[in-house]
Amino acid sequence: MKKFVSSYCLFLSLSAFFLGSYMFLGKGAFADFPPEWIGIMPFSSWNSLALFGIIVFGIGNAGVGIYGLLKKSHKVFLLSIILGTWLFLAAELPIILMGEWYLPLVFLFLASAIQVLLGVIGLLTNKGGKSLNKILNS
């Protein structure tokens, strides 16, 4: 299960780098930053949003994925839950601040739910649930 969670984190990392690079290029859906977002959202351009996504979700998920593949620790499950929760909250931000839903948010909610669910399943099933006790006691 640990390799599966780690691989999913690496997949999300590649996705964040891919999407971030499209934002930096400013083509297609990312050609113009929505003017109604300026002053309301914490970002004022696609570049700043891309940089945030690449640093937090690209590098963060890469670190968790590599850590899970190289170390024997079960903390990868807890880290996966934390990053999945952050992704969920980041996807929720436009809904809270703007009061609007955007189609890409559905995919971010789905990706975050899968990441959190995989982390929870890993904590509960790995070695009969003993991994949660190991994490909390270390």
Describe this structure in words.
With 138 residues, the chain is mainly alpha-helical. The chain is built from five helices and no strands. The protein is 75% helix and 0% strand. The protein is elongated, with a radius of gyration of 16 Å. The two termini are 21 Å apart. The model has no long low-confidence stretch (mean pLDDT 87).
Topology:
Blueprint: H1 2-25, H2 46-70, H3 75-98, H4 103-125, H5 130-137
Please provide the ordered H/E string of secondary-structure elements: HHHHH
Percent of residues in helices comes to over 70%
The poorly predicted ranges are: none
Structural class: mainly alpha
Please tally the β strands and state the result. Answer: 0
User: Count of DSSP helices?
Assistant: 5
The chain-level mean pLDDT equals 87
Radius of gyration: 16 Å
> What overall geometry do the principal axes of the alpha carbons give?
elongated
Largest beta-sheet characterization: none
Task: State the main characteristics.
5 helices; 138 residues; single chain; mainly alpha
